[in-house]
Model the fold of this input.
Amino acid sequence: MYKRPQYQILRKRIKERRKFIQVLLGPRQVGKTTLIKQVLQEIETPSHYANADAVSAPGGIWIEQQWEIVRTIKKQKGAAEIILIIDEIQKIPEWSEFVKAQWDRDSFDNNNIKVVLLGSASLLLQKGLSESLTGRYETIPMMHWAFNEMNLAFGFSPEQ
Done:
């Protein structure tokens, strides 16, 4: 299976010590979810994937629940680290405040939970990142496929 260039960046960041929240940022249908799935298939670190598309509980509660699920899994497995992935994070109102609170709690407690956020509404996502999470995240931009990628992945010609 073809791996977009961002694959190597994200894989490297996840293997490094916990330092920043990783944010996969880009339009819908560019492969953000596929990319994180590819990375998770090739590493041995336990993880928890949550999608904010169909959140029933109020946003902040839902985010806290996802963090508690990850903390429980980490403890039960006796894992040194775990990865929390939240897809479509921009759909949660005031998401950045809740992410900041949980990230800071884990930082204070030396709890090695690595976080990957996926978002497709650039303006909503950027607003949350600049307001609350300054200095706590790194973005990995994902744009629409370029011709050279489509050629490598699918053998497409300019005419196609």
